[in-house]
């Protein structure tokens, strides 16, 4: 039970944020101990992750319940919209750091290293490169490379398929949104389900591509600055797709339960915004990591 | 003012520890932030005293060089991320909803989370001092390759920064949503108090800059443990790239530390000059201009690293441009005081000291903006003097000003004016004893982050250390003043001061647990 102050919903004291902070602390500490091969690390990580998952059910569940109970007015809705919008902006800046690293390496640091004849004699500025001390690059999609060389993933195989998958999923989530606005529950759930499936298919191909890279292409996180930027950019993007797909799946469950109204459904829209955001980042990846 | 609505139990103040652990009330969370900030201020201050004790005399007496470097690093991290940033968020939490006539922050649960991330994060940081290999020792800028070679302490620092960054981003999102969405009817953007304006711009800087730092430290982590080569030339990367990414965060960060301070003294100076703020609109636009410029000046921290000449020139000119909006601000503060019927209560003393001494730091900053001149100053004590003049005299003195200004509103009691003035004079005089000689040390060539020094630097260092210890222990007076004001003292009126402007002065002192349940009318 909470009081309504001037219409704006103010929640009662809540235990979940504090507990979440504790979970995050355990997760971080466990991860660090793990990095240094200290025994309790894994258990702390599991405990921390468990706390965070529990929080998501409890805290977010509470928000969904309050929302369905009609406690949020238009002003609360605007707060949520601003919150989600600025959160996505912070995510864009996070990816910006890694795109910045990619551009810096390609445009500045690699040519600089190659430019000075005394620094690394014989090193040519190319892209991809694993750097003067790294493995040699032998062109895209060369299978079962020899030791000391690496290959890269060509843009117009799996990455193109993945681009089509994600772009299509952005369309299907919009179709679902239209259906929700017209209160057509059947098409809403169907197209949302299709979106989640497309997201899962994207992740399947992405994992397949990683296995290929490690097993057959000699392309790993350790493949110099190319491997670093390639895996960190696509890896963080893949993580965001996974999170986005989970969010959409939760929204699907809520749709199946009959949540959301044609004119009041920010939970759905927030998830859709996030999905369009990961889609947009992918377009950037496809252009700057795979094609160019 | 606060007509109780519907459900009365909400207006009762919860009791016990869970009040603080689980609170969603902006005033409680503001109090938590402010106390946390003050504790961190003392912790970081204690580390500063370790540094000053070691530098009291040439040679190595107190600590070993590795621990000295850890103190230098953790002192800075604790002060920036633990004391100054949370301190201003504490002010934001307490004051913003009252200044704009809102019932609370826009996202109260998120608000609780933003705070409770902090103690856990700083626990990780302090823990780093006790693990094998010790804490981070590469300076707060954690440049590779030094930070890549460090032990577990660096990993603890990386995750501290991640969690503190989450806290800042979430807090900033909440502040933006509050300011843009929760204003009372009639409170148009250009009627907002300047503290509100500076915070909305600061929040934007936080959301834009903190994720970039998260990216940078993530790259450090993978370079340390997962074989990536972002910062290794052998793999085609570049250690200088870290500096670019770091300072793309780092320069907006220093304005994150100073803009809310500008906001506070823009509230205080008009009150004690008994005149409205001079040039309100130009203040708003100057703040926005400073925020914009903060994103295109970052490499002025890196003049000596080896950049193309065009880069050096671009960053030199763009940096010098910052003097224009900052000059507008200083001019406006002076013009506000001009021919005002001024009185000099403690908040006003601190505000005037902020203007005067921040300007000293601003002018040394202008000197360092000049690339060829900076080749002499870089990595010397001149830099140390400069950033303490801007961060201590800008941010911290402004926070002191704000504490004295709003303390009667928070506690309902006037603070002890005599003690406040003693605190002021001790702080300001000892600060200058500590840091003014460091300008000369820097000119003479004393490098920063080194525990030992040549004999010719001995006198100034001894003076500086004596000043440092007076400065450190003087802060206990503030603790005393605050506790005294919480426990009792002369009852404060709703207005507290002589006809001050702002909605916060229309509610009783102490401010009720919930204010503006129904929005006030702003004309």
Fold blueprint:
The complex is a heterodimer of chains A (292) and B (523).
Chain A (H helix, E strand, L loop, with lengths): L3 E2 L2 E2 L6 H20 L5 H28 L5 H42 L20 E5 L8 E4 L5 H24 L3 H33 L6 H33 L9 H26 L1
Parallel strand pairs in A: 3-4
Antiparallel strand pairs in A: 1-2
Chain B lengths: L16 H5 L4 H30 L9 H36 L7 H20 L18 H4 L2 H30 L12 H32 L13 H35 L6 H14 L15 H13 L1 H15 L8 H24 L1 H7 L3 H31 L5 H27 L14 H30 L36
Describe this structure in words.
- The complex is a heterodimer of chains A (292) and B (523).
- Chain A has two domains: 1-72, Helix Hairpins; 73-291, Four Helix Bundle (Hemerythrin (Met), subunit A), CATH 1.20.120.80.
- The model of chain A is unreliable at 1-5 (pLDDT under 50).
- With 292 residues, chain A is mainly alpha-helical.
- Chain A is globular and about 70 Å long.
- Chain A has helices spanning 16-35, 41-68, 74-115, 158-181, 185-217, 224-256, 266-291, and strands at 4-5, 8-9, 136-140, 149-152.
- In chain A, α3 runs parallel beside α7.
- Chain B has a single domain (26-506), classed as Cytochrome C Oxidase, Chain A, CATH 1.20.210.
- Chain B is 67% helix and 0% strand.
- In chain B, α9 runs antiparallel to α11 (323-337) and α11 (323-337) runs antiparallel to α12 (346-369).
- The radius of gyration of chain B is 23 Å and the shape is globular.
- The two termini of chain B are 17 Å apart.
- The chains are: A mainly alpha (292), B mainly alpha (523).
- Chains A and B meet through β1, α1, α3 and α6 of A and α1, α4, α6, α7 and α8 of B.
